[in-house]
Amino acid sequence: MIEVSLFQLFVIFIIILYIINRPRLGKNEPPLVPYTIPILGHTYDYLFNTKTFIKKCKEQYGECFSIYIFGDVVTVLSRDSLTEVFRNNNDFDMESAAKETLPLERLLPYSGNNVPFHVKTTREQVSGKLDINIDIAQKYLLKGIEKLIGDCNEPKVFYKTWNLVNFLIALPIANILVGEEAASHEDLVKALGDLAFDVGPLIIIPPILFFIHKKLHEIVITLPLKFGWNPVSRIRNIVMNRLRPVVEKRLKERKELGNYYKPYNDLWEYYMNLPNFDNTKPNNLHFHVDNLLAITFASISTTSRAAVDALYDLAGRPEVLNELYEEALIIDKECNGSITVPEIQKMVKLDSFVKESLRHGDTILSLPHYMISKSYTFSNGFRIPEGRKIMLYSIDMLKAKEYFGDDAEEFKPFRFLNRNSPATKVDRSYIVFGGGKHACPGRFFAISETKLFLHKIILKYKVSTESGKIEDKVFVGPFTSPSEGGLVFENRK
């Protein structure tokens, strides 16, 4: 009798859940793609058949349509509708959508994750100081390559190369963020490089509890934080321990030297010049370290991802590697091996290659937003109600024939040569870095460092895939991850 009662309660619960979560569409909304499984809706296809499923939906229902996943209606936008989101940023909120899967303000509780502050800081102190930062990047990329890859007179094979490239990219960025003294400690560099990888599993946890209530997912994934577990805590402690003596040293130098004090060229010096910096107050150092970690999270893993994808794209195309080697030799000879921003700008073939690699990132759905205005009507007449979640069909835009030609699906490394279309340029079709006023402010440094990294690798090594083929990316639902296939490094003779 007890089993029957429990079963009946379960059935009643499912019925109530279905009634509560049943999709309700208003007038002039994009069409809802039909589904056959109550409650689950399109969730299975979204997770395990994303590419084919979304492509078929667009073919049947047009550039705007809605799907039912995790107990909620989500509207998918492509082409013209997608670009309207970037033009009307005040109507759409990306930050609240990001918090659903990664509550960064809980992981970095001391700073509160002040996005406008981080954007301004990145624009002014990272991309805005490109000349200084590229000089630092060159110095430490060379050190990292020598240490981690080294002599390859006999070919060396590396697997899971993203981990390798991530540390190589983290080394110069750590020096730019905290300065040479703190970044001389390998544990700090590794900690900053590990940040996104340690937090990453929280992002890919499917929000199954959304079926009951959205807040439940956030409660569950943040529950360990209430008991003291935080993947950021270990990293924060390492950074704090390495920065305390740096702060004390610099404060002492300021006091002793006065007007003769020479400021350091790193982000930490910028933080120490802020009016609210006071290491004598409780948690003040924690506050600035969490600000530092927020920028670290947004910079190292995204740059290393671009670099490792480009490296795999290069390794599978020996004819492209040879052509880029010729360009690299000419530039290296002109500057005697000392690359500055003007030399990076001369790497026009490499720039086109990097841009094409980014275009083929192959993420299917990206940049989720919430509709925060009462409603929004697109130019095609479709209306999005307040509170609706939208996702951008990014791969559809990045492979659009009307923008990239009939061969848009192909990887053409020099597609953008002589087109006044550098990899940093944001336009209606190239949405890798977002768009509008919220376009990624760090893209100028990220592209420059990626090109610099590839330039040094191309000059020093022949790189190929162990399989001898072009490696495919790994799909995780609508997202992709770099291949884990082997890459072979061999010294150039």
Descriptive report:
By secondary structure, this protein is an alpha+beta fold. It has a domain of 151 residues. Helices cover 55% and strands 10% of the residues. It has 21 helices and twelve strands. The strands form four sheets. Strands 1-2-8-5-3 form a five-stranded mixed beta sheet. Helix 9 crosses helix 11, helix 9 crosses helix 15 and helix 11 packs antiparallel against helix 13. The protein is globular. The model has no long low-confidence stretch (mean pLDDT 89). Belongs to the cytochrome P450 family. Its cofactor is heme. It holds the Pfam family p450.
Overall SS class: alpha+beta
**Overall pLDDT score:** 89
Main β-sheet description: 5 strands, mixed
Shape: globular
Uncertain segments: none
**Helical amount:** 55-70%
Number of strands: 12
Spatial order of the strands forming the largest sheet: 1-2-8-5-3
Beta content comes to 5-15%
- Rg, rounded, reads 24 Å
Tally of alpha and pi helices = 21
Q: Tell me the distance between the termini.
A: 80 Å
Quick gist of this model?
With about 500 residues, the chain is of the alpha+beta class. The protein has 21 helices and 12 strands.
Keywords:
493 residues; 55% helix; alpha+beta; globular; 12 strands; five-stranded mixed sheet; three-stranded antiparallel sheet
